[in-house]
Amino acid sequence: MSTKLIFFCLALAACAPASTEPDGVEAETPSDSLAVYLDHVPIAVRDLEAAQATFRALGFTLKPGRLHANTLDNAHAKFRDGTELELITADEPQDDVAAGYLDFLEAGDGGAYLALAVDSMDALERRLQVRGHPLSVIRGKAVAWVAIEPPGPLAYLFFVDVAKRVQDPPEILTHSNTARALHAVWLAADDFVAERSLLTSFGVDAEGEPISLPPLDGVGRRVALHS
To answer: The pTM is what?
Structure first.
């Protein structure tokens, strides 16, 4: 589990991720194009019912999830642009995924992973494989995702197929607080060398725009993905 801290920013009716390759590896980026989008943040919670009550009190409409065989249970705050916030918990370490959430929850609730959507899973896999990243891959009719396996600084990242996003009815996508999109994600860590390398291979300007962060006594960078 990565030690990076993940925060999110919502667009209301009315901020983008910061930036793998193993140390010392210079990999040639495949020439095929790849568009990368913000998809969702899984927010690990100890008490799913209490978390849902809090989010509803904040004005979110929640779509019920389901209890999975590995003891994961979840609920979704979904937005019109296909992004979402996922509340998720686990009871027992039935597999590596459930164990990862339980390990994260030992330190408290919060954003545990970051999901990005891509327009070509084949192009994504080629980019990750040429850099030697260990991958977990599921490719099905309804679901397709690729996760970067631990160890390593990018093990909090996974990717989904933008074409397989579920289309929900308007009543699920309408929130009384006027939230309409997951607009940005903030990452906090000592360095983002791996992230910058990965995003550069996706054709993203990973250097981004410097921004001042006085409350954190630090400097950040705003990196724009595709929109």
So the answer is: 0.88
